[in-house]
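Help: why these numbers?

___
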Amino acid sequence: MAERKTLDERQQMSEAERLRHSCAHVLATAILKLWPEAQLAYGPAVEDGYYYDLDLKHRITPDDFPAIEAEMKKITKENLVFEKVTVTREQALSDAKTGRLGALTERPEPSRFKLENIQSIPEGEAITYYKSGDFLDLCAGPHVMRTGNIGAFKLTSVASAYYKGDEKNPQLQRIYGVAFKNRTQLDEWLKMQEEAKRRDHRKLGAEMGLFALDAEYVGPGLALWLPNGTAIIEELETLAKQTEFQAGYVRVKTPHIAREKMYVTSGHLPYYAESMFPPMELKEPGVNAPEAPADRYYLKAMNCPHHHRIFSAQPRSYRDMPLRLAEYGCCYRYEQSGELFGLMRVRSLNMNDSHIYCSPEQFAQEFNAVNEMYLKYFKIFGIEKYVMRFSTHSKEGLGKKYVDHADLWLKTEEMVRRVLKESGINYVEVPNEAAFYGPKIDVQVWSVIGREFTLATNQVDFAVPSRFGLVYRDKDNSDKTPLCIHRAPLGTHERFVGFLIEHYAGNFPLWLAPEQVRVLPITQEQIPYCEEIVKELRGQYVRAAMEFSNDKLQGRIKRAEEAKAHTMLIVGGRDQAANAVSVRVHGKGDLGSKPRAEVIADILAAIRERRA
């Protein structure tokens, strides 16, 4: 479920968000005209569109969409005004009990979800309705002026969703749609969706043999990396390790589990418990007394507490600072089953993680260096559009949602803001979305077809190091608590590979391609020569293989193209006699016959330089 916006956040909603939110009301009205008994829950604007959650005995399917859209068109043609009405809490509760809210008229059954929503509105906050025609809904707005301002819309899908995102609650039907100012924008969006389907990482991942999801035996959201996918993640790890080594990072390794005490100390328990796998309870004979409670261990949901213990494992001095600990750590998070999605939302994730411990004086240089690392990666992967979402705290959340240190919040937020401004990084500031222990930056990137992805997160932590008693001996011989920068420029293997599959449409650059070179002898006479080429390439750690069969050459070329093998080296009698190969590159076609040594040297250089 989309998180409830504050009144201030609602006033900052963009024109597109207002239009989508308004279209959710039009959708709800149309559904009620067809099924007056529908019980409505929530209808927010979301990325690209909107949805409405509802409880209805009739199971809505895409076959119902034409009828619903026809009603929606009638409503937009009526050009109804979105009228805001402020009411007392007593009036709102009365209207919900008579079934009037989220409805076209009073009904025998109370508006049960609206009733609960009213009760969740904080005391003292204004309660408002929005009315359009006969439809009356509990809503804080804002909306466009009239239903006629919604120029073009389309229903896209229907899914199941637990009320308020909690699987203990009733399961509702969720109807998704999109809305735009005009038909041209809708047509452009539809075109992009068709291209996105062609690039879908789940489809291409299966076709290319990159990963598998085995819910029956392994479990939902736990990816199995097949050989081709493993080749990609190992290349990414090599890139990260080389980049981090050059930047002064040191590598560490940590276990996959830890005692409950670790996460209580960090503050993740009990507040993060719903996102962690249930604990394992262990009693060791001869270690635990019979009457003693069992030890509780948790699967690691984050790497930072382990790294904090590595920091504290040895005495630290200002001479050790900054200390940059890096690890591709495997974490486990209990995502709700309805939220799992291919590689993008999983329960096991391998994270390009690091924690930088530094003094306040070192912070600006270290934080800027992290941003520069992002820019380097963007260039390597051809990511041209990005934005850093700088999330800050709110005063109201201190002691509840955020660590209660007002001065440190203001100080660290200003430090981050100054670095972003001085470095010229493209960023936007978003209030009330920080991590509980400090400000954070979510890195948003766009693929070549304009799809937005959350790549990774940077966080500034001024609170948790002190929880673990982390100190270093400063120049004045006093103990100081370090600042900690959490960063993961390549995010997780799962999410980043999912992004790259769609970004490249599976046509990876040579250095990243699962199959870099496929050697194709035209006849049996060229097999020994081709085997020499494969041996030479594999001796240089190039992923090369030879294929020969009784199939015609064109059939074998077609198979290599379908498998997205990056480079084909085709060898006939003339090529062998001249110690040459005929080169064909996936997506580019034939490049002609070239000397073998020249081709191999260019392949090695392209891989070493990570050419696009």
Residues 7-190 form a domain with the Threonyl-tRNA Synthetase; Chain A, domain 2 fold (CATH 3.30.980.10). The mean pLDDT is 94.
